[in-house]
């Protein structure tokens, strides 16, 4: 899963979605199903308390090299340096902000984050391991 088969130098054209963090299974990294008290992994069957949920980065990008366009997803801790914190800490900051501001619409509170990510990535050239 982590073996790089080649390198691709490409520029980011767009961010494909506004969900950069997801609740991740600690065993298989699949997206967890969360309710108010528990989490459940549909892939491996892992369960636990919602408060113990781990989070992981997933950044979906449209990129272009000199010849082609590609859709690519970048996962995990390799994004920590770009965001300045782990996905788990960023999720905690977002939750704390929503509680302190009284924001009930999670989509509205992530607008500034989406804009910051677009500013940091769109138009920039990176080397992707594929």
Features of the shown structure:
single chain, 130 residues, alpha+beta, OB fold (Dihydrolipoamide Acetyltransferase, E2P), 26% helix, NA-bd_OB-fold, Rep_factor-A_C, DDIAS protein
Description:
It holds the Pfam family Rep_fac-A_C. Residues 9-95 form the Replication factor A C-terminal domain. This is DDIAS protein. The chain has 130 residues and is α+β, with helices and mostly antiparallel strands. The chain has a single domain (7-129), classed as OB fold (Dihydrolipoamide Acetyltransferase, E2P), CATH 2.40.50.140. 26% of the residues lie in helices and 34% in strands. It contains 4 helices and 8 strands. It has helices spanning 80-83, 87-101, 106-109, 111-121; strands at residues 7-15, 21-24, 33-34, 38-40, 47-49, 54-64, 69-75, 125-129. Strands 1, 2, 6, 7 and 8 form a 5-stranded antiparallel β-sheet that branches. A hairpin with a 4-residue loop joins strand 6 (54-64) and strand 7 (69-75). The longest helix has 15 residues, at 87-101. It is globular, with a radius of gyration of 16 Å. It starts with 6 loop residues before the first strand and ends with a strand. The mean pLDDT is 90.
Provide a concise account of the structure shown.
By secondary structure, the chain is of the alpha+beta class. It has four helices and eight strands; from the N terminus they run βββββββααααβ. It has one domain: Nucleic acid-binding proteins (OB fold (Dihydrolipoamide Acetyltransferase, E2P)), CATH 2.40.50.140.
> What amount of the residues lies in strands?
25-35%
Classify the fold: give the CATH topology.
OB fold (Dihydrolipoamide Acetyltransferase, E2P)
Order of helices and strands: EEEEEEEHHHHE
Question: How many strand segments?
Answer: 8
Query: The biggest beta sheet, please?
Result: 5 strands, antiparallel
Q: Tell me the Rg in angstroms.
A: 16 Å
Give the proportion of residues in helices.
25-40%
Structural class: alpha+beta
The end-to-end distance, rounded to whole angstroms, is 10 Å
Query: What's the shape?
Result: globular
Unreliable stretches: none
Question: What is the CATH homology-level superfamily?
Answer: Nucleic acid-binding proteins
The number of helical segments is: 4
Kindly report the average pLDDT value. Answer: 90
